[in-house]
Amino acid sequence: MSNLPFSDPVISRARRIAERTSPSDCDPKVEALVNELIGRVADKWTMIILEVLAENGELRFTQLGRQVAGISQKMLTQTLRQMERDGMVTRTVHAVVPPRVDYRLTDLGASLGAAFCGVWIWAQDNLAGVEASRVAFDTKVG
Amino acid sequence: MSNLPFSDPVISRARRIAERTSPSDCDPKVEALVNELIGRVADKWTMIILEVLAENGELRFTQLGRQVAGISQKMLTQTLRQMERDGMVTRTVHAVVPPRVDYRLTDLGASLGAAFCGVWIWAQDNLAGVEASRVAFDTKVG
DNA sequence: CGGAATCCCTTCTGATACTG
DNA sequence: CAGTATCAGAAGGGATTCCG
What we know:
By secondary structure, chain A is mainly α.
């Protein structure tokens, strides 16, 4: 398991937050583009693949599929293509039989993983709180 | 526009990253639950609403709809209900005519907003890089 | 092994119309 | 104003089959 550059990038990003009024406090044309990018990147499978690759460094297609519990081969392929197109992962095809394809995060992908790291931690820390809120909401409505 | 607690929570969370090998380096049962929670919370509209409410403090239904460019009234209602159920927002109904309903982030919601902040900044910083990667990919595939 | 292609069902999402 | 209800098209996503 590789040692990830999670702490430094996240902390430096976090520091820069203090310089801005809000995360998207910038010109409106850019804001629309940012929203679009967020929409594509804030995807369940993208986030999970990002994390698995961040943990393991480099994985083959099937290995990746096993690590990402619950994903179908179709969605794995689809998501990986999208991530490759967006510059998040590199896809290396080895000319051997049986074929071997390795996936690895690019620097861009690793930086997104680092940015998402805060959300993972949040999810772990607040699992119980969210569940409690749901129960309360459902019994009040139910 | 309220002054948000973005810097402190994000930095403290980021600091805690150094204590862990990876963001989900914990027991497998919890990991599945975390994945599920991520799947629900890593949603385009949830993220954008979270950010708009973080910036504005408290908003009425229609005001919120105007701030969230491109959302339909249906998705706005749906997403807000979900967020209310998950404990992210409070929904305050004023018994007046015409009706008035205010939405505001809870502490839980604000903390998620803080966690997402790194992703927003990432998206702003890497907009050009992603776009360039897409162009390169598309011309190569062509 | 690492896909691509197809089928088929479900969910998402926007538009429109209606209500307390 | 702040929704609910309904409909229809688009996209998401699983299962299966086939190929280099």
